[in-house]
Amino acid sequence: MIVPVLNEEAHIEASLEAMLSQRVAGGIEVLVVDGGSEDRTPEIIERLAARDNRIRVLSNPQRRIPNALNIGLRHARGDYVVRMDAHAYYPPDYIAVAIERFARGDVDCVSGPQLPHGEDRWSQRVALALGTRLGMGGAAFRNATREIEVDTAFTGVWRRSRLDALGGWDERWPINEDAELAARIREVGGRYVCVPAMAARYVPRRSLKSLALQYWRYGQYRAKTARHHPIGLRRSHVLPPAVVVAIPAAAVAPRGRSLARAGLLAYAAALVAGMFEARRGEDGGSGRDLLWVPVVLAVMHVSWGAGFIYGSLRFGAPVAALVRLLAPVRR
């Protein structure tokens, strides 16, 4: 498995312990690719590697995720390549279930649902928001209760031969590299599936500022992915940019002001509904935490939408992708 890391001292030890607990025939190797961490991450990794020779530590001078993944791919020795995140916790049969699914054929990537898991006040608030329909944003892999086909994945497992044939991850995508890879595979008829038994807990950002930056960058590179791979854009991706456009339109647009205001009012109602949805969820949450859910959702959507608009200016508008979405379905 390949684990890109950069300043992950808060989670790396528990995450690696969970990874080392994988039950899979033939054994595992854990390739930890460090992007020059400046906290205690290297110390923790080296201590764990000293007592478990399944851990190999590699260096990533470029400090970016796709570079780390390709470094790991070049050093990997197994037939299957598993990407795992240092701020996530995977079930012990994660790899075994994936290999069993590959044995049945017809898939190119197997992954599990991404379950938000808060560990402090703000990550808990973000996790509550991510557990709602507005927080999932149409990403089917976030809440699958049965095996389904998906358009991208949270981490996942691939055959080594498939990744080698594709040249690995595209290093021009420092963000959204997972969706870019998925789009390339799907364009040639490949399939991604999400298996509930592989559900992994993911620790989200710990502040609104870091969350806003994360989604700003996500939005930018989704625009780039959609421009190069029209298959990589879904209808739910259009909604956050529409909200961003509606905000100034509601205030100053000479025409369409009433429509923009009505749209924003409906959006505000949806945010409030998201708060009540989070309250009914399995993780619940205190009253104070629930009050923050609409704020967290708005930060995610506005940051992503603004990033998408900026990314369309920076990388070029994904015209073909938008036309594909708007075109009537042919029967």
First-last Cα distance: 42 Å
> Averaged pLDDT, please?
93
| Rg for CA atoms | 20 Å
Q: What is the domain total for the residues? A: 2
The sequence of SSEs as H and E is EHEHEHEEHEEHHEEHHEEHHHHHH
Number of helices: 14
CATH superfamily assignment of the largest domain?
Answer: Spore Coat Polysaccharide Biosynthesis Protein SpsA, Chain A
List the helices and strands and how they pair.
Blueprint: E1 2-5, H1 12-20, E2 30-34, H2 41-51, E3 55-59, H3 65-75, E4 80-83, E5 88-89, H4 94-103, E6 109-111, E7 114-116, H5 121-130, H6 133-136, E8 148-150, E9 156-159, H7 160-166, H8 177-187, E10 192-194, E11 200-202, H9 208-228, H10 239-252, H11 257-280, H12 287-291, H13 293-315, H14 319-326
Parallel strand pairs: 1-2, 2-3, 6-10, 7-11
Antiparallel strand pairs: 4-9, 5-11, 6-9, 8-10
Helix pairs in contact: 5-13, 9-13, 10-11, 10-13, 11-13
Structure report:
By secondary structure, the protein is α/β, with parallel strands linked by helices. It is 51% helix and 12% strand. It has 14 helices and eleven strands. Helix 5 crosses helix 13, helix 9 packs parallel to helix 13 and helix 10 packs across helix 13. The model has no long low-confidence stretch (mean pLDDT 93).
